[in-house]
Write a structure and sequence with these properties.
With 177 residues, this protein is an all-alpha fold. The protein has a single domain, classed as Glutathione S-transferase Yfyf (Class Pi), Chain A, domain 2 (Up-down Bundle), CATH 1.20.1050.10. Helix content is 61%, strand content 0%. It is built from 8 helices and no strands. Helix 2 packs antiparallel against helix 5, helix 2 runs parallel beside helix 6 and helix 6 crosses helix 8. The chain starts with 10 loop residues before the first helix and ends in an 8-residue tail after the last helix. This is Glutathione S-transferase UstS-like C-terminal domain-containing protein. It comes from Sphaerobolus stellatus (strain SS14). InterPro entries: GST_UstS-like_C (IPR054416). Pfam families: GST_C_7.
Amino acid sequence: KVLGRVPLIGTIECAEYLEEKFPERPVFPKTGKALEHAVEAFFDAVVFPKFFMPVLSLTYEILDEHAKPYFRRTREKAFGKTLEEFSPEGPVRDGQWKDLEAAFDKLAAIYDKNGSNVDFIAGGTNPTHADFYTASNLMWINCVSPEEWKNRGVEQWSNGRWGRLLKRLEEWENPKD
């Protein structure tokens, strides 16, 4: 703890902390957290490398003018290229989006082990952290560019799995309790 605060370094650590503090709305299955950690690790290793180039350049476009210099400086340093080189319009960008869709298809193949009609990764009737993690990254795309979301047919990727997941998660967006 730092001055009464708890330093958190990753999304799963944040989720574990929130689960501890607010146990009435659990996001981890009672049987354990291994699946949640594995799905997030898979996402980070397989999907994120394909996610960054097209989505980061779109993210920059929606930032306010105050945030843009920091975002540009830190991302260009981290990736060793200018934001304009991340995802240039045309065949390069189209290829990046196809690669991103293919990465989401790999994740869908894992989800599909429960059956193509089962929406949540743990196979139950309630979502878990991994479902929220996946959905939040899909929502990131829609937030930074609804136009790209629509034009690229993201909701229909993986035989519509991701559109169904987002629809199923709507009831958790604004909980009544």
